[in-house]
Amino acid sequence: GDSVTQMEGPVTLSEEAFLTINCTYTATGYPSLFWYVQYPGEGLQLLLKATKADDKGSNKGFEATYRKETTSFHLEKGSVQVSDSAVYFCALSDWAGNNRKLIWGLGTSLAVNP
Amino acid sequence: NAGVTQTPKFQVLKTGQSMTLQCAQDMNHEYMSWYRQDPGMGLRLIHYSVGAGITDQGEVPNGYNVSRSTTEDFPLRLLSAAPSQTSVYFCASSRTPTASQPQHFGDGTRLSIL
To answer: What's the average model confidence in pLDDT over B33-47?
Structure first.
């Protein structure tokens, strides 16, 4: 069945460092891919998405490219800030029969130190 | 614009008690869902609804009931609380069940069962 695997955390970086959080997936169809962010004490918020191969999603300096050949959707940011400290979730959305299915990664915690 | 509103934010129950977690959205979204978030287990789908009057089970439905009498509201009922139901509960909605539609989350209800 479909699955999402993201790198385990926690990830600790210094401010202005480069960030990569790996996400790979398996899917039988043509899924849409998402990154969500969860700040402490809050619900998840959509960070970016891509709906087809080679699409690049971007928001707030974060980017991720839908790579069908490597079944990956890695999250990157060139220069992180303390305010980026949060938990990041990779997710896959596809159809199963006549229902939507949404598969979540386990989340990667990021801590950015000043 | 309120988005998805969950009440209460915190609740402590005794084993065997029942309660209802409230969820309301003001975006006229068709699709609504309930998740629980537990450490190391990511997000797990409890129940979902693709429209008023239509509900279905997710991954972990046992011990929970839902109803969808209006487009706006999607309450989650715990029938007889058990310590295993201690968790953070999130309600989410999306405009349609389409795979490419992102989900909008509430801020969660933190529930402890003693």
So the answer is: 92
User: B103 vs A102: CB contact, 8 Å cut-off?
Assistant: yes
The residue-averaged pLDDT of A70-89 equals 97
SS3 B82: coil
How many angstroms separate the Cα of B98 from the Cα of each of A74, A96, A98, B25, B103?
A: 23, 12, 10, 18, 11
Strands of A62-65's sheet in order across: A19-21, A75-77, A62-65, A56-59
Q: Which of A77, A76, A26, A33 is nearest to A54 (CA)?
A: A33
Q: Does A32 touch chain B (CB under 8 A)?
A: yes
Helix, strand or coil, per DSSP, at residue B84:
helix
Does position B1 have pLDDT exceeding 70, yes or no? no
Residues near A100 by beta carbon (within 8 Å), at least 6 away in sequence: A93, A94, B31, B97, B98, B99
Question: Which chain B residues are closer than 8 Å to A36 by Cβ?
Answer: 103, 105
Between B88 and A8, where is the model more confident? B88
pLDDT surpasses 70 at A97: no
Mean pLDDT throughout A25-46? 92
Q: In chain A, what is the straight-line distance between the N-terminal and C-terminal CA atoms, in Å?
A: 41
